[in-house]
Write a structure and sequence with these properties.
Layout lengths: L8 H6 L2 H12 L5 H8 L3 H13 L19 E9 L4 H12 L4 E6 L6 E7 L2 H10 L7 E8 L22
Antiparallel strand pairs: 1-3, 1-4, 2-3
Helix pairs in contact: 2-3, 3-4
Length: 173
């Protein structure tokens, strides 16, 4: 399978409307059987399966996973954290990235151009457990100069239909 970053715009231009409908249906429900998917997009099962397998082979479809309610597993409190490092050298970046990737509460790490140096998504059970995480773990990560926590007030739009507010859910096909 191709790495995520290797996919380029040529695939988007080569996909037709049927491919895009397959992708939209699988984004809504990755557990659809091939027969149900084929019925929804107006194909018979064999050509539908060939298209899905091609989209998987070409790296358009990266995989299938269960969407879990974060609150049900003690991760219902989400914070975006901007992190700036003390130095901007390779050793500092590598030490920070290794340490931050090992923290279970950190579910996403993005290295940014400009400021901040990193954007983190952190999930915990509550604001109290987040404060403990900051005090006992995040503050000890090597290379951290400053960090700013951003607590969400309201979710306006999400690619996950279960999380998106009713007015922001994708339309049915």
């Amino acid at each position: 399978m191709w790495p995520y970053h290797a996919i380029n715009a040529q695939y988007f231009s080569l996909m037709d409307a049927v491919d895009r409908r397959i992708i939209a249906e699988l984004q809504r429900d990755g557990r659809l059987s091939n027969v149900e998917l084929a019925d929804r997009i107006g194909l018979t099962p064999a050509p539908c399966l060939r298209r899905v397998k091609r989209l998987e082979r070409e790296g358009v479809i990266l995989g299938y996973a269960a969407r879990i309610n974060p609150a049900a597993i003690g991760r219902g409190f989400e914070v975006l954290v901007n992190v700036d490092l003390t130095r901007k050298d390779r050793a500092t970046f590598e030490a920070f990235e290794t340490a931050i990737a090992a923290l279970d509460e950190v579910i996403e790490v993005r290295r940014m151009f400009g400021l901040p140096d990193y954007l983190l998504r952190v999930t915990t059970a509550s604001i109290e457990s987040y404060e403990t995480f900051v005090s006992t773990r995040l503050g000890d990560v090597p290379g951290v100069d400053t960090f700013d926590s951003h607590i969400m007030m309201k979710l306006i739009k999400s690619p996950d239909p279960e999380l998106a507010p009713p007015h922001a859910r994708p339309p049915e096909l």
